[in-house]
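Thread: "does anyone have the structure for this chain?"

Original post by V.I.:
We have the sequence but no experimental structure in hand. Need at least a predicted one for the grant figures.
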Amino acid sequence: MSSRDNHSPRDTSTGKVNEADIEQFLIENCEGNVYPQAEVGTQFDTGKKHIVDILLGGLAYKKTKKHKRYISEHEGGTLLSLKYQGVEGTAEEKIPFEVLKLQDSIDKYEYDCAVIVLCGDDGWTLKEYYLSEKFISKMKLICPNVTITDEENFRKELTDN
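Reply from O.Q.:
Generated one for you, tokens below.
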């Protein structure tokens, strides 16, 4: 038994349910295409695929009908990263790196912008900091096209426009 096998599996289904709910909300409230789990290029110079939770707008396709991911044609659109934190964990520690990855994709592939949506209320210890002017202004210095918001404001902004 490897050391990985002796940990109980984490239940990530709540995050997946949240993603599906936001995806349906976007389909009902946005004019552009909604592409879940879209491959939008490669991460930095690693060559690893960069998959975002949702590509909103732009153009994407599936290699076959059975293919599970959309592949972006790099024709604009907004990159959405949905970060759900329902219990204490490390997802919130990955937010600064996510900001950098998204800006890199915008720079390389000319997407319009990116939004990180902080979902869930329980388990976050840094949520208010990530939403603070202090953090946002620091990130804007190097990642001017990435916005961080919470789910309530994200939904409100889309329905108000």
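V.I.: this helps a lot. The mean pLDDT is 88.
O.Q.: and The chain has five helices and seven strands.
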